[in-house]
């Protein structure tokens, strides 16, 4: 049985381009982000992959990326579950702030801790650990059982919601996951065993 799970971060958003902390805000994709989503769809098509189910967040940059990918695959209208559990990490008070200006105001090290430490949340927001505490229960209850039942599944979500999932899938330590950066619009293809363990992983960025 093919237990296929593809994860893809949304294409570049307007706020990625402006270098703003985005979190739960809902900017659209840039031209480049749209092109990245088309490329992701083409890459999956070249590999002759199709899907039975899709999951995404309630944020439009992830939904639009998914729509474009499904369009490339000739699968527009595929059954799709949208859930806030897959949203980007909430950046709290940093939301909307320019990342360079935040470094000037709070210092490079503090901003790095807020962005890439495992369990230090930004003021009023979520740490990666807190993000994992909502992503992983959703994954285990809603996504994994479908993959294990042979439903070929694609998940279009966000840098930090996917990092918390990758940490679990690949058994990475907090130190290892913090170094893992996900490219916008880049699919990562997992094949799982009957217990949900990873048999193979192919990052199309490589
Ligand atoms: O701004 C955000 O919401 C995220 C993803 O773009 O940024 P960071 O890389 O700082 O986690």
TrEMBL record:
GO terms for molecular function: phosphoglycerate mutase activity. Its EC number is 5.4.2.11. SUPFAM superfamilies: Phosphoglycerate mutase-like. Substrate binds at residues 9-16, 22-23, 61, 88-91, 99, 115-116, 159-160. InterPro entries: His_Pase_superF_clade-1, His_PPase_superfam, PG/BPGM_mutase_AS, Phosphogly_mut1. The keyword Isomerase applies. It catalyses: (2R)-2-phosphoglycerate = (2R)-3-phosphoglycerate. The keyword Hydrolase does not apply. Pathway: Carbohydrate degradation; glycolysis; pyruvate from D-glyceraldehyde 3-phosphate: step 3/5. It comes from the Bacteria. The active site is at 10 (tele-phosphohistidine intermediate), 88 (proton donor/acceptor). Keywords: Gluconeogenesis, Glycolysis, Isomerase. The record marks 158 as: Transition state stabilizer. Pfam families: His_Phos_1. Belongs to the phosphoglycerate mutase family. BPG-dependent PGAM subfamily. Homodimer. Catalyzes the interconversion of 2-phosphoglycerate and 3-phosphoglycerate. This is 2,3-bisphosphoglycerate-dependent phosphoglycerate mutase. It comes from Roseibium sediminicola. The lineage of its organism: Bacteria, Pseudomonadati, Pseudomonadota, Alphaproteobacteria, Hyphomicrobiales.
């Amino acid at each position: 049985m093919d237990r296929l799970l593809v994860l893809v971060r949304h294409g570049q958003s307007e706020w990625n381009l402006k270098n703003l902390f985005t979190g739960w805000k809902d900017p659209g994709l840039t031209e480049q982000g749209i092109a990245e989503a088309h490329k992701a769809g083409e890459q999956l098509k070249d590999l002759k992959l199709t899907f039975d189910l899709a999951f995404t967040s309630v944020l439009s940059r992830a939904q639009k990326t998914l729509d474009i990918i499904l369009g490339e695959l000739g699968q527009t209208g595929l059954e799709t579950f949208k859930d806030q559990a897959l949203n980007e990490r909430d950046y709290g008070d940093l939301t909307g702030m320019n990342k360079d200006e935040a470094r000037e105001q709070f210092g490079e090290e503090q901003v790095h801790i807020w962005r890439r430490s495992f369990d230090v949340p930004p003021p009023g927001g979520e740490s990666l650990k807190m993000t994992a505490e909502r992503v992983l229960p959703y994954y285990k209850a809603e996504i994994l059982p479908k993959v294990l039942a042979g439903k070929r599944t694609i998940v279009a979500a966000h840098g930090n919601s996917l990092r918390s999932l990758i940490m679990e899938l690949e058994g990475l330590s907090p130190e290892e996951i913090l170094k893992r950066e996900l490219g916008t619009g880049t699919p990562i293809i997992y094949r799982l065993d009957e217990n949900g363990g990873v048999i193979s992983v192919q990052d199309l960025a490589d």
